[in-house]
Design brief:
Layout lengths: L1 E3 L2 E3 L14 E8 L8 E4 L2 E4 L1 H16 L3 E8 L3 E8 L25 H20 L12 E5 L2 H13 L4 H7 L1
Antiparallel strand pairs: 1-2, 3-7, 3-8, 4-5, 6-7
Helix pairs in contact: 1-2
């Protein structure tokens, strides 16, 4: 933790200076605020989404529709978090003639970067769910998120397996929370 404007702030897990718009696969985990179980239940090792979970699912899948260079790979919505793999297929959205910086900077979103995609996803799901809950300005997600740059096919296979098996491991996770 570092001190920023007289407040403690958790350091980002993102690599300093890394271009999060470049082609590759990224494992993302986004957790609800206070780990509240809001998106459904695990029944017999299977995740059953509720109305809020369906919103999260629809918006996650929409990410790949509204951004033609993003592929939504394996993902799972759990009662209090989402694990997903986002693949940036190529940089068709980056115009090399513009010479726009692709390095994310605080307060300056970068089009089609992983941080901007996650920020937009969290914002739209929060707005939609808060309308249903009739609770404007209520936090839905924790401030940050976990990301891992997937380095090779073995890493990708291991993470896909982890995502697939996540519901069957819920009882172990639940005790940790």
């Amino acid at each position: 933790m570092t001190l920023f404007k007289n407040k403690y702030r958790v350091e980002s897990t993102r690599l300093q200076g890394y271009d999060y718009t470049q082609p590759g696969a990224y494992f993302i985990t986004i957790v609800t605020y206070n780990r509240a179980c809001l998106f459904g239940k695990i029944i017999n090792g299977e995740m059953i989404l509720n109305e809020y979970g369906e919103i999260v699912k629809n918006e996650w899948e929409k990410t790949g529709i509204i951004r033609p260079n993003i592929i939504i790979d394996k993902y799972i919505i759990m009662p209090n978090h989402l694990h997903g793999i986002l693949i940036i297929n190529d940089n068709i959205c980056r115009d090399t003639l513009q010479r726009v910086s692709t390095i994310e900077k605080f307060g300056k979103p970068t089009k089609n970067s992983i941080p901007t995609i996650v920020r937009s996803f969290k914002s739209t799901t929060t707005k939609q769910i808060n309308i249903i809950r009739k609770s404007p300005n209520t936090l839905l997600w924790q401030k940050n998120y976990y990301e891992h740059i997937i380095r090779d096919t073995d890493d990708l296979s291991r993470i896909r397996k982890y995502i697939k098996e996540n519901p069957s491991n819920w009882q172990n996770d639940e005790k940790m929370m």
